[in-house]
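ENTRY TYPE: protein
CONTENTS: sequence, structure tokens:
***
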Amino acid sequence: MTTQLAMFMALGLGVMAYLIGSISPSILLAKSRGVDIKKEGSGNAGTTNTLRVLGPKAAVVTLIIDICKGFLAVFLGAYLSAFAGEFIMQQTTYLCAVGVVCGHIWPIYFKFKGGKGIATAFGAILAVNWMVALICLAIVALGVLVTKRMSVGSLLGGLALPFLCLYFEFNFLMGSFFLAVLVIHTHRANLVRLRNGTEPKISFGKKGN
């Protein structure tokens, strides 16, 4: 396989990952109940807002699907590109990791308005390097436990990712920086609220199913 063909294949698989990431369980679950999740709560199509608007059961379903789609996109990218050699498979894997998160944040099926990509990023990183993913998860959990704010945990996990990749997954360092920038970008409003002391704490929605 020529280098040009291999790179074209990698880009194609990156697009596939983006399309997988564009599938939004939060939006679909809300629509099934006659709710537009993008007009309720924080307006984000992710686990935290699903918890606030639809309740814990819907939030758990959203979380599981978002993690699984991140993992699946990266796993498929690696599997389908394995025959092209280690280097191409590695680059395809990283491209799919970024692609699936971008799909979640800017879903083509829902007018490019999605969630913040944290759960999907976790699933993608889990497929890249499970150790890095679990350490990030521990950092997120600690941040949430201490502050009771998901945004703080998410920001800490995102910012820690490049440093973890520096030691455990150096080849993904550039991709990890890109994901960290995405985390900061999608949490701009949260950063303002944190500065102003108006960022809400996690609370269970009134709807229980």
Notes: The CA atoms of residues 141 and 149 lie 10 Å apart.
